[in-house]
Amino acid sequence: MNYALIFRNHDFEYEVQAVAKIFIPGVRFQLCRDSELSDAENQILTEYDEKNHLMHIEIFLHGRSYSDIAPAKTEKSEQEFQLCRMLYQGLQKLTGYQPPWGMLTGIRPVRKVLDKLSQGLTPEQACQELKQKYLISDKKLQLALQTALIQKEILPHSLKEIGLYISVPFCPTRCSYCSFVSHSVESAKSLIPAYVQKLCEEIRILGELIQKYDLSVQSVYIGGGTPTAVSAEQLKEIMQAVQNHIDIAHAREYTVEAGRADTITEEKLLVIREMNADRISVNPQTLQDSVLQKIGRCHTAQQAVEAFQLARKLGFDNINMDLIAGLPSDTYEGFSDTLRKVIDLNPDSITVHTLTLKRAGTLYHDANHQNTEIPVVEKMTELSANLLPENGYQPYYLYRQKNTVGNLENVGYAKPGKENLYNILIMDDRQTILGAGCAASSKVILPDGNLTRVINYKFPYEYINRFGELMNKKQQIAGELEKLT
User: Fold this and answer.
1) Which neighbouring-strand residues pair with 397?
2) pLDDT (tens digit, 9 = 90+) per residue, 149-184?
3) How far is CA 437 from CA 236, 386, 481, in A?
4) Does the domain formed by 3-95 have CATH 3.30.160?
5) Does domain 154-436 have CATH number 3.30.750.200?
6) What is the residue extent of each domain of the chain?
7) Are 135 and 92 contacting, i.e. CB atoms less than 8 angstroms apart?
8) pLDDT value, residue 179
9) How many helices (H) and strands (E) does the chain have?
10) Among residues 137, 58, 56, which one has the least CA distance to residue 94?
11) In 267, 294, 406, 466, which residue has its Cα 20 to 30 A from 63's Cα atom?
12) Average pLDDT over residues 384-400
């Protein structure tokens, strides 16, 4: 079945397409300007009639039609929202679907709540305004509000306080849903020694910038990929570079994303402990063996449980576990079983992601999984939102992504005092984060609230071979950090 979006006399294509995808997920729209014709059987026309100053939409969807016309708002930004709201309401009437996040297509719902609270609104007033504007459901508003109130007490307030991200982009195998820049250890084995050497050099250079501009590192996050996919010796080399070159005496947390059970060994966990990291992740995504096999994981559910138990035995008292709602072949009963088993393990935080179909992931191209049962995934996330607070976990960070099944969300739940600052900061865009390693992004938050991003080369071979050029980017970062003094 073919679908077309037709735009006439406006440049609101991105937001119009985002709204259309809420109701018609998993399809590739033909995009047309007003001078083009489409023979698609399903068409959505959005138009700004400048001469008569009108907004106009026409929808032909699955044999049904809808149209609307209204006087256009004066400001262009208001016109974009007006046109999208008209489209949203038309698609809602034709499909009968009530999206839980309403019109909200952005990735940071919590930021909108925090902004309202900073303006002096009460929590109730903030929710009422957001509901009226974006048509968000009460349940999702309460989730965003609970998260915002917890974040408000955790967020740092000084521009001199920063986070540090270190990328180790290697995994044992690539999961079918994954869109991150990661490479199997087997295929990239020859690159790893040179990559680690260059990474340690970049950590040293970042340490010099941190010292020069009198910055205070509040959080360190070693992620990937799967950092524990490299050898214990290589992991120690990276963490030793942090210890040698970065002042983390005032850091509130230090995370290593151990991740997959098939990379976690006692030797590597002891390295992490020796290098003073105080938080790790053991991320099974599911405890259903058939689902693990389907997504390309080379470990069993029991191995994930054993990896967690080993970490506890070695003294780790801040362990996160990641789960994904909506994985291929998983069921509501399977997800429920996984969630309850993970709660029984009693980790310090549990992050529940909703499956996202991204073009870089092989699952995106699997036609059998394009039509994931949205009501089932909604039930999975609703179960998490009910069951986790009942067991002492509260939502502390929340974000959304494009092409997420059901237009749903990813939520980090934690026991009091076990919230991960870095996870909050990466979504908040209110604190500088310096990144080392391939595909790592440094973002410098300026006093006026604007930010500058500097992104490292995407692939390990590029990172290694163009390392000299990469260091020129550090001059750009230095120039932005100068503005903080």
Assistant:
1) 412
2) 999 888 877 889 999 999 999 987 665 666 555 556
3) 16, 38, 19
4) yes
5) yes
6) 3-95, 109-150, 154-436
7) no
8) 54
9) 16, 18
10) 58
11) 406
12) 97
